[in-house]
Amino acid sequence: MALISAPPSSPLLNASFSCSSTKPTSLSWTASFPKLGISFNSVTSPPTSSSTLNKDNFIQAAWTRRSRGEAAKRPNRKSWKQRTDMYMRPFLLNVFFSKRFIHAKVMHRGTSKVISVATTNSKDLRFSLPSLTDNNACKVIGNLIAERSIEADVYAISYEPKKNERIEGRLGIVIDTIKEHGIIFV
User: Fold this and answer.
1) 129 FRET partner, CA 20 to 30 A, in 5, 68, 78, 114?
2) Global confidence as pTM
3) Can you list the pairs that 81-90 forms with residues at least 24 positions away whose Cβ atoms lie under 8 Å?
């Protein structure tokens, strides 16, 4: 075992240490440093004047993102309807019309699970229908969506039209056919 020893001229050997413990006279944390000679009672506060207390001189904390007026308005908070709509009307119908095909699906909003799908691009409909985008194809798609939704025990769905979208024409035919087969629109 090797011992490390300090040279004789080291200040560690010349210093005198007392190993006796002195009992503190006070229970405060400053009493545990009696030999340092630091007085904590002489802390002075800077002078305050009315010019330094102006509101303009204060810098807002870094964690505040908005002013009080903006926080009161709560622009990012959703309304009650927006927060609960997903649970009140969980199944949503999505219909898409392209130039060549018609696609429709029913999705669960909370889990994004697809409940039923029908498209005129599928193998069984592509060759059996004379036209893949006419009113007859819309009725077939509505019929398939209704049948597949009932098989999945979904009897009520909702449809949210896009901005400036009217429920008429081919979209109206799809929705009316779904209603005729016993699906309730909420």
Assistant:
1) 114
2) 0.58
3) 86/110, 88/186, 89/156, 89/158, 89/186
